């Protein structure tokens, strides 16, 4: 009385319920629903069966929708740090990137106030919203970096800050009663401003990027690039890339973190072009009847968003439109994990962790300390 | 085009996340529990359009006298429209089948705890790159339609599990009930669940800014629990179409006909609207409870040690066996003695 369990594809089950209006999807990869074979494939010892044995439509892509709603509701966080000498246009660039006054420009005329004696970090957070997507953007500024006569170790407060954020996250993660969503203050991206000298990386650039490149994703940019012609720009970039390689400095996107061939192709293109030569401004001018962001000079208007003029748009696309999530993922999966492993190994050595092997060290240290009383 | 001017572009974030998730794929572990013959395997096959149990041999009566509760796992990779789902079905053959079913849920609670423990170890370990998540995200519990509500074994089972896993109770083989009987049974089961303090999976509240259609669907879903389901491995012809169903002399039961049973509601809930929430509740509530409990147990075991209030107190012991614990205790005492 049983009918054949024929491989029937014609079961037209309901399409998934779209919970919200469509957003522009970058590439719609439509994969054919697998056609059933005439005989079901052999399941191996673990009972793994390939999806080609399906007939009909289950609707699992709706899981993506569910995830999207949750993340949209929760909002996103992004922490960007800007490092470079005073006057390189850091604040202006960040404001231009996010089209709002998210970074306070230092425009104090007083010489004494302008150059701070030490590097101190200031972080400013804003919540910005676009097309229903909420983002808590935190800009960490580093006034004083590279401004002194003697700039030795001026990167230390920055290294300390980056590690402090990792430590904060780690502590929260190890807590017994931990938050559902751990607040993320880790630095997702560090934009390093190179002055447009046209020559090569300076020692301070090398020192900084070498140290920070190990713990955070660095995106170097050539600041105030309107003093370089296109040829000068190309040569400068090439020399910088050579310098970076010679010094073993890894900037974002790092080659070893490319997940697959598709990523590699995309990122190779980026790697061939960094550092981006940028110009920033918050002023608008009329060009050919349109209002554009630009810098007006006697010899012409430098249009910030015109890729023929400068690479601001490329930087923006990289940081925001295509790789923002990736920057966060690299920070979380790689930099943070590296820090965590280091910390756990350290704490093992100090006998803080509980394991029979390390207890030896722990007891030794303890008795040593006690004997000095 | 003022809007265009102001467009920064981070509105693409959800798409960036989307792309990554599609690449990575999802996983989901579903447990089915209930006595033999309640249609668990058939329902799983109907839900995921697979035939997971085709090679199964049913034991005869003699063999089943001595059967104990086992835990079996089947894994299926499903791909649709580029989205990959690794689905694991955990079955519990033998549950409730014996003459004496005392604590027959123990192998099941042990299994769930083991998965939590494994995850806890992995999460606390040094290399966290490829952690496998085998935690059970949802347990479908099959209540027989023949009785008058929950039986003692149903109550005890659900109470043993409700703080470890999301329980979704189902009225199985609902094709032996008339609509009135279904309604009465559902009301009865709901009352008893409340009466016994069983915490079944709760659907999250709708946001106030949801579309009306969604809110309506959500309301219907909540009022319909526990779902009365029917499953089928066969395709029959009904009303001119080929559908999944069961052919009786008196008529054809269509699995996907909402007036026949709640199968569609269950499938929609499980896969199309609440899969992510089921996983979240497992991670954020059940697993966190387990973890907190575990840590507190570990810290209280070594309470003499004044290292316990350090910020990084715990790495899970590789194997907390009796011998190691004894060693630790010995060393501790040695240290204490050396100081006096």
UniProtKB/TrEMBL annotation, chain A:
Keywords tagged on the record = Cell cycle, Cell division, Cytoplasm, Cytoskeleton, GTP-binding, Nucleotide-binding
Q: Note the superkingdom of the native organism.
A: Eukaryota
The reply on keyword Chaperone is: no
Q: Which PROSITE patterns match?
A: G_SEPTIN
Kindly indicate whether the keyword rRNA-binding belongs to this entry: no
- GO molecular function terms attached to this record: GTP binding
Protein name per its UniProtKB record: Septin
Q: What is the lineage of its organism?
A: Eukaryota, Metazoa, Chordata, Craniata, Vertebrata
UniProtKB/TrEMBL annotation, chain B:
Q: Where in the cell is it found?
A: Cytoplasm
**Biological processes, Gene Ontology terms:** cell division
Give the GO molecular function terms: GTP binding
CDD domains documented for this protein: CDC_Septin (cd01850)
Q: Septin-type G domain: which residues?
A: 24-297
Which keywords accompany this UniProt record?
Cell cycle, Cell division, Cytoplasm, GTP-binding, Nucleotide-binding
Q: Which GO cellular component term is one of those annotated?
A: cytoplasm
Q: Which InterPro entries match?
A: G_SEPTIN_dom, P-loop_NTPase, Septin
User: Residues at site: Important for dimerization?
Assistant: 146
Where do the TM regions start and end? Answer: none
One family from Pfam that matches here is Septin
Task: Tell me which family the UniProt entry assigns to this protein.
Answer: Belongs to the TRAFAC class TrmE-Era-EngA-EngB-Septin-like GTPase superfamily. Septin GTPase family.
Q: What name does the UniProt record give this protein?
A: Septin 5a
Which organism is this entry from?
Cyprinus carpio carpio
């Amino acid at each position: 009385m049983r009918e054949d369990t024929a491989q029937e594809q014609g079961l037209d089950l309901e399409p998934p319920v779209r919970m919200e209006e469509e957003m522009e999807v970058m590439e719609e990869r439509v994969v054919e629903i697998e056609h059933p074979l005439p005989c079901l494939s052999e399941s191996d010892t673990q009972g793994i069966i390939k999806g080609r044995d399906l007939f009909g439509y289950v609707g699992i892509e709706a899981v993506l929708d569910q995830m999207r709603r949750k993340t949209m509701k929760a909002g996103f966080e992004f922490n960007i740090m800007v490092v470079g000498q005073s006057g390189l246009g850091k604040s202006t660039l960040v404001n231009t990137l996010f089209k709002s006054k998210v970074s306070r420009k230092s425009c104090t005329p007083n010489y004494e106030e302008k150059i701070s004696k030490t590097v101190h970090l200031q972080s400013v957070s804003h919540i910005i919203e676009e097309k229903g997507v909420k983002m808590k953007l935190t800009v960490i500024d580093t006034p004083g970096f590279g401004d002194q006569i003697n700039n030795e170790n001026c990167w230390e407060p920055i290294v300390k800050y980056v590690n402090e954020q990792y430590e904060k996250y780690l502590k929260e993660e190890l807590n017994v009663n931990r938050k559902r969503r751990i607040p993320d203050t880790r630095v997702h991206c560090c934009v390093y401003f190179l002055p447009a000298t046209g020559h090569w990386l300076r020692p301070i650039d090398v020192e900084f990027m070498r140290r920070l490149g190990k713990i955070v994703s660095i995106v170097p940019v050539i600041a105030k690039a309107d003093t370089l012609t296109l040829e000068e720009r190309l040569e400068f970039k090439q020399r910088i890339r050579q310098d970076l390689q010679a010094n073993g400095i890894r900037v974002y996107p790092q080659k070893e973190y490319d997940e697959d061939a598709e990523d590699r192709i995309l990122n190779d293109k980026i790697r061939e072009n960094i550092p981006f030569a940028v110009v920033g401004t918050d002023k608008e001018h009329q060009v050919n009847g349109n209002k554009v962001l630009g810098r007006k000079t006697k010899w012409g208007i430098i249009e910030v968003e015109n890729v023929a003029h400068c690479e601001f748009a490329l930087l923006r696309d990289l940081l925001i439109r295509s790789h923002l999530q990736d920057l966060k993922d690299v920070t979380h999966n790689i930099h943070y994990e590296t820090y965590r492993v280091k910390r756990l190994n350290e704490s093992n050595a100090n006998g803080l962790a509980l394991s029979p092997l390390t207890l030896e060290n722990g007891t030794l240290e303890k008795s040593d300390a006690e004997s000095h009383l | 085009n003022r809007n265009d001017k102001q467009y920064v572009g981070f509105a693409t974030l959800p798409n960036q996340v989307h792309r990554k998730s599609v690449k990575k794929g999802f996983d989901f572990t579903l447990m089915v529990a209930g006595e033999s013959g309640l249609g668990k395997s058939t329902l799983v096959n109907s839900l995921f359009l697979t035939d997971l149990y085709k090679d199964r041999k049913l034991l005869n009566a003699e063999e089943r006298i001595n059967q104990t509760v086992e835990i079996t796992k089947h894994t299926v990779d499903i791909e649709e429209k580029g989205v990959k789902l690794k689905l694991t079905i955990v079955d519990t053959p033998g549950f409730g089948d014996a003459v004496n079913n005392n604590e027959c849920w123990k192998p099941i609670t042990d299994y769930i705890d083991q998965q939590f423990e494994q995850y806890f170890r992995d999460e606390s370990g040094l290399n966290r790159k490829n952690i496998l998540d085998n935690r059970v995200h949802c347990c479908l519990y099959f209540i027989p339609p023949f009785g008058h509500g929950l039986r003692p074994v149903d109550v005890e089972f659900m109470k043993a599990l409700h703080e470890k896993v999301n329980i979704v109770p189902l009225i199985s083989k609902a094709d032996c009930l008339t609509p009135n009987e279904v309604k009465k049974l559902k009301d009865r089961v709901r009352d008893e669940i409340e009466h016994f303090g069983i915490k079944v999976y709760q659907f999250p509240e709708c946001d106030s800014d949801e579309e009306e259609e969604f809110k309506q669907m959500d309301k219907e879903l909540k009022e319909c629990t526990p779902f009365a389901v029917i499953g089928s491995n066969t395709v029959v012809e009904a009303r001119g179409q080929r559908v999944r169903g069961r052919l009786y002399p008196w008529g054809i039961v269509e699995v996907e006909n909402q007036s026949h049973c709640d199968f569609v509601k269950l499938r929609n809930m499980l896969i199309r609207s609440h899969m992510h929430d089921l996983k979240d509740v497992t991670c954020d509530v059940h697993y966190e409870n387990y973890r907190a409990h575990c840590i507190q147990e570990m810290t209280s075991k070594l309470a003499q040690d004044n290292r316990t209030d350090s910020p990084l107190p715990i790495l899970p012991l590789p194997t907390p066996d009796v011998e190691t614990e004894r060693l630790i205790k010995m060393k501790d005492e040695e240290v204490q003695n050396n100081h006096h």
